[in-house]
Amino acid sequence: MTETLLLGRRAVREVIRLPAATIPTLFIPLFFLAVNIGQISLTFPSTTPFLHGQGYVGFQLPVSLMFAVCTATSGLALVTEIELGYFDKLLVAPIRRSAIIFGRLAADLVRGLAVATLVLLVALAFGMQVRSGVPGALVLIALAALWGVAYAGIGMLVALHTRNVQATNASFLVFFPLLFLTPNFVPFERLTPLMEALARANPVSYVIEGLRSLVLEGWVLDKLAICCGVILLTGLVLTWLSVRAIDAYDR
Amino acid sequence: MSSAITACDLRRTFKGEIEAVRGIDLDVARGEIFGFLGPNGAGKTTTVRMLCTLLPPTSGSARVGELDVVAEPAAVRRRIGVALQEIGLDPLQTGRELLELQCGLYGILGARAQARVQELLELVGLLDAAERRTKTYSGGMKRRLDLASALVHSPGVLFLDEPTTGLDPASRLTIWEEVRRINAQGTTVFLTTQYLEEADQLCDRVAIIDDGRIVAQGTPEELKSQLGHDVVSVELHGADLAATQAAIGELEGLDRVVAGSGALALYLEDGPGSIAEIVRRLDGARIRVGAVSVARPSLDDVFLRATGRRLEGDREESRREEARA
């Protein structure tokens, strides 16, 4: 446990000392938020049933949160350490290799909390309200950050298997189909049958639905439960695979 | 004296049937500085990685003390300190933070860690730079910090993989002094190097590795004295190799002649006494050579005798290749 805390503290310090790695990841979500609201808010005024009396910004916020927290930052940090040789230094220390993974995930959690808070504040500046109140806003931030932690496993898996910066950086692209095969612009019911089927099969849809419910509807427990379940399951599977990959590294 | 490191028929084959290490035997005594000398690609780093538990052997066995590196890797890691060829530093941490973290990973926490870090920073002369991020350090400073980070837990065995490669001569001497000081405190040092002088100056015993096999092993003096001869070098400077060799012909006390890149090495019982005769014969055959010199055998001569080529020549060639790249 101590080693995880130590490595986590180091990774968090890295996030603080290298803002250039975090700031660009904020540009795309804020850009999409502004552009989508600008282009679509007149098409879907607040009287639109699925907006529950709010502006379109409330509908779009979860998508922007997904963009903000899903990064390959931890994978890139890992592969950079492999290239620098520091990774070997950690492997030769008498620690559990999984501590290296969990240390990185701690940094993902801190980064996720920070960027999700910032994106939420921007959405509030656009006039959005969180129907579930301040506690709901906090849960929204926490769930978004935890999804970022769960998703970080993809970048780390690619980093450990390829040991290549370019490949790890490109792993971020996996997120685009995952994000766009969802009810990101309109609810399930308004999608074409094929898109609806794909969106319903995509677990990311349920994370978006859960986050969106906190903003637009208040405390909808079944949606929140499914959202939490997806985050937990994704996190467990990807983290387990990452731990397996690091345990098998050069063995 | 009991063994600090042993290896028995240690082998490592990589994908594509590349045999990096082809069955080596080692026995490093406690408290000695053991040099592992060889050119680039000889298998030095692969051997160190196996001994440090970073890479499993394909076959054979190795022990650090009484601990098997495959069966008890965690216990081995607690006993060893490692500074690998790639300097393992986190560029975003300060020197002090890096050492404190390293202490923590070895279970040294709080005031004990702070005291140990202070001691190590003093030892490697980095107190003034302790609060600076390591990315601002020079190559020599990075190497010294890396060395310090390998020492946080006072390991019984220290592995140094080419610790002076790429350093300027002054930094190299500083590292040598550190290694001697660490060794004087009882730490066994296993040091890989491609520098003959380093092996000669620093090591109690040396193993020469080439193409994954150990080709000679012993103290530097033993290895050199095994040659039993002086070495007369004839620098060709454009002269024809075969003609030069033919002109010199048979000499009294000549053991063997080895042709290197641009030079002939003559192993003679009496080098100084033979020079005049060699020059006379070359003159008689109207062959102009660059220089004729005599020396006591060096480790490079040991390497030459064992492998048929010079280590220094190999390094020059690889430097030229690097420059061309």
Give the gist of this structure.
The complex is a heterodimer of chains A (251) and B (325). With 251 residues, chain A is an all-alpha fold.
**What is the CATH T-level topology of the largest domain in chain B?**
Rossmann fold
Helix content of chain B: 25-40%
Task: For the record, give the distance between the C-alpha atoms at the N and C termini of chain A, rounded to a whole number.
Answer: 24 Å
Note the beta-strand portion of chain B: 25-35%
What's the total helix number of chain A? 12
Q: Tell me the domain tally of chain A.
A: 1
Number of helices of chain B: 12
What report would you give on this structure?
The complex is a heterodimer of chains A (251) and B (325). Chain A is mainly alpha-helical and 251 residues long. Chain A has one domain (2-247). Chain A contains twelve helices and no strands. Chain A has helices at 2-17, 23-40, 56-69, 73-84, 86-91, 98-125, 133-162, 165-170, 175-180, 193-201, 203-216, 221-247. In chain A, α3 packs antiparallel against α6 (98-125), α4 (73-84) runs antiparallel to α6 and α4 runs parallel beside α7. The two termini of chain A are 24 Å apart. Chain B has two domains: 3-222, 3-Layer(aba) Sandwich (Rossmann fold); 224-324, 2-Layer Sandwich (Alpha-Beta Plaits), CATH 3.30.70. Chain B has twelve helices and 14 strands. Chain B has helices at 44-51, 73-79, 95-105, 110-123, 139-149, 169-184, 196-202, 220-227, 241-248, 271-284, 299-307, 311-324, and strands spanning 3-14, 18-29, 33-37, 59-64, 67-68, 80-83, 157-161, 188-193, 205-210, 213-218, 230-235, 254-260, 263-268, 291-295. Chain B has a six-stranded mixed beta sheet, sandwiched between helices. A four-stranded antiparallel beta sheet of chain B has the order 2-1-4-5, with helices on one face. At the A-B interface, α1 and α5 of A face α2 and α3 of B.
